[in-house]
Amino acid sequence: MIDKKNKEIYVLWWEYLKRSERYRKFCNWWKHGGKKPLPDQLRQYHQPMWNTYMNFGDVNSKSFEKWWKSELDNPLPCPYHPYYPYYPYYPDFGKNIIDYRSVIEKDIYNIYRKLKKEKRKKPSIKELMHNIKMYMTSWEKERLYILVEFQHASIDNIVKEFHRVLSKKKKEPHIKEASRSIKGMKGITTIKKKPSTTQELQRYLRVYDCKKRGLTIPQIANEIQNSFPKVNKFEDDEYHYNPQNVQSAIKRDLRKAKKIISNVELGYFPGDL
After folding, report:
1. Model pTM?
2. How far is the C-alpha of 34 from the C-alpha of 27, rounded, in Å?
3. I need a surface site. Which of 42, 164, 209, 252 has the fewest CB within 10 A?
4. Nearest residue to 106 via CA among 1, 211, 262, 240
């Protein structure tokens, strides 16, 4: 079940997703039943956008309030978390090896939830089993699902064997590529000052919208100052919009807004900036 105290965060997630032209194109393609081939520019985004669509739907044609109410009424575990690791999905957060028995129930709920939304009916056992395998495959860039027979060999031998398996896996080209891009894509908060986080995310979005409207840097600065009067009260000069650094500050906020839009296309919010 989604946590009602995070509504302000999900509103922002929704709004950033609405700014994604790629996601808009994906939604239009999906609404027509995916009968035409997926456009080449969307091909690499297919899996994360499919996951996002199963969770949020078409944000450009749906009401956030209607979606929010349906999520509050949903008793199943929420499969997306805006501020990981502040809302850890797994027990014993921080450990890299866990007992999968403590996780499998949530994974199955996640798969069941998506299948039910997609097919609008309860999935069969065969469908569920197939999609569990597909789900595990989709995590291959981050996880190893292995069975360890630990009673029949020494710890040293098991460690050596595991080391060989892991080393071989990490050398695979697509795994190496994923490791370069996966850091910071876990929905980690990008602002250390937690109380001002949502305000700053709102500011990035406002700067982005102003730029799309064709406003100049001074015009954007004036509108932002009027919209967020507290921005000049931050102790950190990095967040001041003053004559000395206004141009670089606006450009920085615009860059962060674009990065967040890119992150939500991959299913993370706000992500590493």
Report:
1. 0.58
2. 10
3. 164
4. 1
